[in-house]
Amino acid sequence: MEHQAVLALFDRQMRHDVRPSGPTTRIERDGGVVRHVGTAEDWNAVMWSGLDADTADAAIAEQVRYFGERGLEFEWKLYGHDQPADLGERLVAAGFVPEEPETLMVAAIKELRLDAEPPEGVRLVPVVDEAGVDLLIRAADAAFGHPSGSLRNRLVAQLTTAPERVRIFVAMAGDEPVSGARMDLEEGTVFASLWGGGTVAAWRGKGIYRALVAYRARIAADLGYEYLQVDASDQSRPILHRLGFTALDTTTPYQWSAGTH
C-alpha cells in the first residue's frame, strides 16, 4: 500500500468530498473549511481544512461564531498532517478542548486475513431495528464506562432513513450483549469505515473484536470496497496492526462547547 497516495485519497473522498450523514445534516464549504452541520442531536464538525498561518485564526473564529450562533457544540477533527503545523495550539487558544488522539489506520481488504471467527458461545447478530440498537448501546455503555449520548438516536435514524449506508452488529453471549460495532458505507468512495468494537471487560481477549473486524471486512469486500478505515485507540491499535492495518496518521478531536466559555 502506497501510504501517501492512500492518505491523499482518504483526504479527498472522506474529508473534502464528504457527504452528509443523514436527512437532517448537510455539508457546507466556507472558504478553506468543510463542515458537517445538523441539529443538536447530530454530529457537528469541521471535517477538512486547507489553511495556513495567515488564514487559520480567522477561519477558527468564523467556525466558533457560526456554530455558536446556532447553539451547537461541534468538533474540529484535526489530522496530524493538517496545516499550519500549530493548528492544534491555535484551536486550544480559541477555547477548544482536545480529546485523546487516535491513530488513522487503513488496510487494503484484499491483503487481510478474514477468517477470524467469534469464540465459542458468542454469535454476531445484525442490528436492523430499535431493539437491536438498544442491545448495542447496552454493550457500548458497559464497555466504555460512560453513556453513549446521542449515538442511539443517530443509529436509529440511519437504519430508518438510509439503511444501505450502515451495517451494525452486536455480539451476543446467550441473551447478553457483550460487544457491538458498525460500518459506515459511502457510495462513490473506496473506503468503508469501522466504528465501535468496544467489548465488556469479562469478554475481552477472546477474539470478539477481531471477529467483528473480519466479519465487516468480508461484507465490505463483497460490496466492492477496497479499504477499511479505523480511528484506532491505543487498545485497538495493536490488534489492528496484527490483522494487517497500517498507521497512516494521527487524528485528534478538538471539542468546542459554549458552556465551557
TrEMBL record:
Signal peptide: none annotated. PROSITE patterns: GNAT. It comes from Actinoplanes awajinensis subsp. mycoplanecinus. Residues 123-261 form the N-acetyltransferase domain. GO terms for molecular function: acyltransferase activity, transferring groups other than amino-acyl groups. It comes from the Bacteria. InterPro entries: Acyl_CoA_acyltransferase, GNAT_dom. This is GCN5 family acetyltransferase. Keywords: Transferase.
